[in-house]
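Hey,

The postdoc asked me to send both predictions to you directly instead of through the lab channel. I've kept everything plain text so nothing gets mangled by the mail client. Protein one:
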Amino acid sequence: MKNKDFEKLFFSKTRDFLDEYLTKQCSRSPHTVKAYRDALTVFRKYVSVQGLSLKTFGFQDCTRDFLLGFMEHLQKEGYAKSSCNQRLAAIKSYMWYVADGDITQQQTALMVSRVPFLKNPEKEKALLSEECLKALLSAPGNRKIEIRDTAILVLLYDSAIRLSELLSLKLTDVNLKNTTPYLRIHGKGDKERIVSISEGTVKHLKNYIKLFHNQDTPAAGYLFYTLIHNQTNPMSPGNVERIINKYAEKIRPEHPELPAKVHPHMLRRTRATNLYQSDVELELVSRILGHASTQTTRIYAKPSLEMIKSAMNRSNPELNAEQPLWPDDEVELARIFGIR
């Protein structure tokens, strides 16, 4: 195949897009790159299902109707609307990358950008109530492994850290000796932030480090690790999710209001909402969470019923000051009516 013909193929630039542009030039996280790769892989499989070959499917074949058919196919396969939209967003991003390097593809990129996303009504994100949160954080016991589990649960909530950030924490990122103890967190886009932690969390971390990072334990750079064949490895996301589910099920009989599924991000969301409801400025909450924009943080800005009541009372002072229409004195009331 001639090089000129190859460059007209839709998937001819996916490797450069994923491995060069997103990874090296945009410094996107491995998780983000994987999401884009998965989306383009799902699209590639749809192309094959339509009886088309990667050797002939070109940019001109990626029409509006073809993409609408792709979105319909995803829904029939049981994908959530948010997942369908994520895959479409990846294709749009890829096409703009192609068009930036090849002006002849700008019309195709523009057409792709106008394919509508599926309407996906936002559902109320579940939070942990104060009672459920306290029960969950105190659910582990005092055995060695349970002390580790407590440290994970408490740190997830107190620092509002992402799961991926927690698992990438090194022992050197934890500073417990400073006047204000803190974590050095490496977030999305290789951005670094400092987040302070409470004295209670410091206590749990000290207990954990004393047991899992001493002269009798294997050398491990990561704060939380697993030991396989006498080799330390970063703890997996699945392992943390299992830990959380284990204690969620333990407390569920006494707390039936606990959300059906408790996951690591729920602790982050609960912490962010609690900070906002405690009158912490949104800009500061955004900094703690590692958001590039406060617009992203606004999804956690959920007012409590007390905040709503207070705001409504403040906005209607004349209603609050309203006097009863009729006096309580029966004689005076009779006089008003013109009788005795």
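Protein two:
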Amino acid sequence: MLATMYQLALEKDYRDITVQDLLDRSGIARSTFYAHFRDKEDLLVAGYGVMGMPAVQTRLSNGRARTVLVVCSWLFVATKKHAALTTSLMSGASREIVLSHLENLLIIQVRDHLKRHGGYQSDGIGGEIAVRSLVGGLLGIWRWSVRQGYVDAPLEITGAFNQLISEGLWPQTLDIAAQST
């Protein structure tokens, strides 16, 4: 059923795809579809599940070993692999629906990771600000990359993102201290 959704999404905007279109194209009975999915958005979310889960790695950051969710490379590698589908979904009127589901998926993954590894402060808003800052930054870079036609390699983007997020290191050409004087 996902393959059918992908084919249709390459042909027309996601909002214009109906459950009947999916059934007609796939030859699956309506009752079978609804036995597995509530609606076509449930099928879209299942598509994100096919991407799997981001890996977890131990890395040195500022001299300390940290358990890091490798969410940036996970997202950019999957995007590059499915570039035509991503471009189609993000260029139509349905991009906000697609983006909303992706944002929710990333928020859940990052929040769960931080909670598991002691990086989420549940008292106050600090933990949620950390989650949403990371996800917001990642999605901003991701949207830019999609609009640019995937000109940069996923590993280059990941390296720059991870350096900024985990170590707070800005590109060497940006000297904030010099600019503020």
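Summary for protein two, as requested: Residues 173-181 have pLDDT under 50 and may be disordered.

Thanks,
C.
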